[in-house]
Amino acid sequence: MASPGMAFDMDKLNQFMESAIRDLGAAMHASLALIGDRLGLYKQMAGAGELTSAELAERAGVDERYLREWLNANAASGYVKYNAATSTYSMPPEQAMALAVEDSPAFLAGAYQLLYSVFQDVPKIEDAFRTGKGVGWHEHHQDLFCGTERFFRPAYNAYLTSSWLPALEGVVEKLERGAKVADVGCGLGASTIVMAKAYPKSSFVGFDYHPGSIETARERAAEAGLGDRVRFEIAPAANYPGSGYDLVAFFDCLHDMGDPVGAAKHVYETLDPEGTWMIVEPFAHDDVESNLNPIGRLYYSASTMLCTPASKSQEVGLALGAQAGEARIREVVTQAGFTRFRRATETVANMVFEARR
User: Fold this and answer.
1) Which of 128, 166, 255, 316 has the largest CB neighbor count within 10 A?
2) What's the pLDDT tens digit per position in 254-293?
3) Taking a C-beta distance cutoff of 8 angstroms, is the pair 245, 268 a contact?
């Protein structure tokens, strides 16, 4: 405990307080962003030009007084613009891309849904700090599942078939001819469905241990008309069925696994001898100090609340964490027997690795 007489620098304290106030404002505003997403307020504003609070309230079917306060908070946060001369509000196209356009690569609304689930689960993680026990993915608030899918789907739409798969040696050619693909830790199936739509001659199976996610993934595949080439099965990463896969994909999930080496060994056993393992992981440097930046802040925080508890809830509980870095991922992959490993490509948020025998 700090001593009441502890010496401190007032200027540095004030600088920190300014930063903390910004954080508190952002945290409080996250709840308003979630409401804006759920009520369709951002979508109503996108492309609509300048609107009074009354006009927007009528369009959205909500109470004007609540909406006016919400609009002012969004204006203070820079999410919308306020015109004092006309008392109107508008949404710039750049903000609309992030808040209102679901298929935009910058779409962020799913993140606010994910954040809501995280706050709901604070008591569970607090208890895990005390006991050292884990919290399984399935034990989290239900908004985590849909929020995570909505958060990651824009990147899959933007990069998966345009740059990630083409960066892998010979994989696109196989997919175009007709390949056998396993998407492990598929969640609600967004990545599986994106690939299946792009490569109609290939067959895809998504695996996840969470029954609720698999049920939703099956519904999404049926809605997309992909039932003949896509199936989803309940199975853990270290024991999913099948063999001779031309491509096995792990999207942002290897670091969540209790025994990533065991999962990697199972990939090795189920791959075709000429097959490829694609591993998509959060962007991270190998040393802590290089990750002390806005991206690292987000990922270390998410790792504390989600990834590390998930790993510690399983056998082994290695807890790689969301900022494991390339060297640590390489170590896991090579321990499983893979002899070729490289970073095929990257984005600001992700690293895409290729592993082969």
Assistant:
1) 255
2) 999 999 999 999 999 999 999 999 999 999 999 999 999 9
3) no
